Amino acid sequence: MPFFEWGFAELYLAQLVAGIAEVFFLSVPPLLANTWFEPSMRTTVTSVASMSNSVGIALGFVLPSVVVDKQHKGKSDFMVLFGTQALLALIILVAALFIVPGKPRETPSVTSTRPTSIREMWPTIKLLMKFPPFIFLSAAVGLALNSLWSFAGFLSQVLLPFGISEKDSGYIGFFMTLAGCLSATFIGRVVDRSRRYKSTMLLLTLLGLGMFSILLLSLLYADNTSSGASSSSSSTLALVFFSVTIMGTALSATIPVQLEYAVELTYPLPEGVVTALLLFLSHLLAPP
Helix or strand or coil: residue 288? Predict the structure, then answer.
């Protein structure tokens, strides 16, 4: 489809705006955790706050496949889908503007203070760009985490040739993301007590890699040995559901750990600048 056609141009613009906004939204949880909560709860709060984004992703997996399917794919069905998404966004916006307090009761910590201009941010950015551990962590975040979401974004297209419907793919993505939210909250609490950021990230990444290997093997096995038998399709669906869910559980749990680890590595630099630059670099280093 030519780029100049309005439908494609509007879709591209919407994705562009969402991609730009994501860096700012995802960098907020550590700042809120350090501003509003005591140190012993920071990673837990970061986990809950960062996973709120994943709840939206989980709904994004299941809602389209429920509202728009093979029997219902007309203009009115898409309008219902987009209208529902707009309504949810409006409710959250109203809550953020009129219900959530604008500032905490107590004075924020030193690292949570936010620079008010690019001139104030620039010295911090220069220090971070010259700090190898921060650069390596950004690369790890980009390669590990964004690989998961890149794969999840094409989940239905990947699984459809193996007899797994778009609706089943939507439910797989939903449970993958939901399990990641729960595991992130639990892991965040564990890290709050142990302060073992590096080893926790390593174990979770290896678990995610192992599950991804099982997923590939299950799909290759189904492709080489079966031509659509119902029993094989059921076993393939079960293996895919298990491996994708555990993979999402492991890799999603690394999100708050990575954010808090970046803050710990760069203390006492401002958290807002640290997390925003981490996410910006990780998106640049992510697989296209």
Answer: coil
